[in-house]
Specification:
Helix content: 40-55%
Distance between the termini: 58 Å
Number of domains: 2
CATH superfamily of the largest domain: NAD(P)-binding Rossmann-like Domain
Number of strands: 12
Order of helices and strands: EHEHEEEEHEHEEEEHEHHHHHHHHH
Shape: globular
CATH topology of the largest domain: Rossmann fold
Strand order of the largest sheet: 5-2-1-6-7-8-11-12
Length: about 350
């Protein structure tokens, strides 16, 4: 990196932002983290950010600030907060974004329209990530397994800045790509994400849920419900890490869908991150999940097209019950979702 390169601002130093930022900082890029957790910020400033896991372990010196302590204008901002925090974070970062700069959403869900309201569509990029990582403790993140990383303009153009961002991300994930169809990836992950919310109803791992013969039909039905909404909105879907959207399209045969489930299960068994971040939010961090902004959003988007999404609606209800301590994470809770299929 040339010393004159402007620093990259990463807003949200958790599993996604922390992992990406640590690798880029180690590669010599200027990185500044912003995080709302003062203990995490203090630990990064005092001892660096530590990445552990089967891929490699290292600690990189880094600088971090809380949002209220941030000063300066930045050309490139990676937004990596939880989906419910997007609106507030986008408003907070907007004064720090250069007129010709951009915000790239490295998040779950479909957050780009919210970001565009705060900073403008021309200054908003999309990013799809599927690597496995968990925030463990202040200053510590588990990087459990590699996964797809894709960036793209929200209007489908392939621009110089997207190519430059792709090149930058190669210092984290060598197989990162740019795409003219970023929403195709994001919608495919919405379907996969619905499966992960279903997994979080149980105590089981992602792979064990996807492999369970008693629930394969449920996972297929969930994906098909989400992808029917995507199709209604005119989205052309993209595949990633074993998820084959063609296999889960409404009206498709079960053989291809079962093969895709098996491939996804095998992909997850290779990762040290055994459970979803959704499961971890509930079981470990004891906090609310992103359910309203993911399966809950599918219900609202289905309604816009005159469709029903009963599985996503019931899934949202069940996750709230688990969050509120009214229901245990168990196979019985997954059975309650499966009953919606009858």
């Amino acid at each position: 990196m040339a010393v004159s390169e402007p620093p990259l601002l990463i807003w949200g130093a958790g599993a996604i932002g922390g992992t990406i930022g640590a690798y880029l900082a180690r590669a010599g890029h200027g990185v500044l983290f912003v995080d709302t957790d003062p203990d995490h910020v203090a630990r990064i400033n005092e001892g660096g950010l530590t990445i552990s896991g089967p891929i490699e372990c290292f600690t990189v010196p880094a600088k971090a600030v809380t949002p209220e302590s941030l000063d300066g204008i930045f050309e490139r901002i990676v937004l990596a907060v939880k989906t419910p925090a997007t609106r507030a974070a986008a408003r907070a970062l907007a004064p720090h974004l250069a007129p010709g700069g951009y915000v790239v959403s490295a998040q779950n869900g479909l957050n780009e329209p919210l970001i565009a309201v705060a900073v403008g569509g021309a200054r908003t990029l999309g990013c799809f990530v599927n690597f496995g990582a968990d925030y463990r403790a202040p200053g510590e993140i588990l990087y459990g397994g590699r996964g797809a990383v894709v960036v793209g303009e929200i209007d489908g153009r392939i621009t110089e800045r997207v190519r430059a961002l792709e090149t930058l991300l190669h210092d984290f994930e060598p197989k990162a790509i740019s795409s003219a169809n970023i929403f195709g990836y994001l919608w495919s992950k919405m379907a996969y994400g619905a499966m992960l919310f279903a997994e979080a109803l149980t105590e089981a791992s992602i792979a064990d849920c996807l492999d369970h013969p008693g629930y394969r039909g449920l996972f297929i039905a969930l994906a098909r419900e989400v992808l029917a909404v995507a199709q209604a909105h005119g989205v052309t879907l993209e595949s990633f890490n074993g998820f084959d959207p063609e296999a889960f399209l409404p009206g498709g045969g079960d053989r291809a869908a079962l093969e895709s489930l098996a491939t996804m299960a095998a992909f997850n068994r290779r990762s040290a991150k055994t459970h979803s971040g959704i499961w971890r939010d509930i079981a470990v961090r004891k906090r609310k999940t992103e359910v309203d902004a993911l399966p809950g959003a599918v219900v609202a988007l289905a309604r816009e097209k005159g469709l029903a999404a009963p599985l996503c609606a019931r899934l949202t209800e069940l996750i709230h019950e688990v969050e509120d301590g009214k229901r245990r994470q168990s196979w019985q809770s997954l059975d309650a979702l499966k009953a919606t299929m009858v």
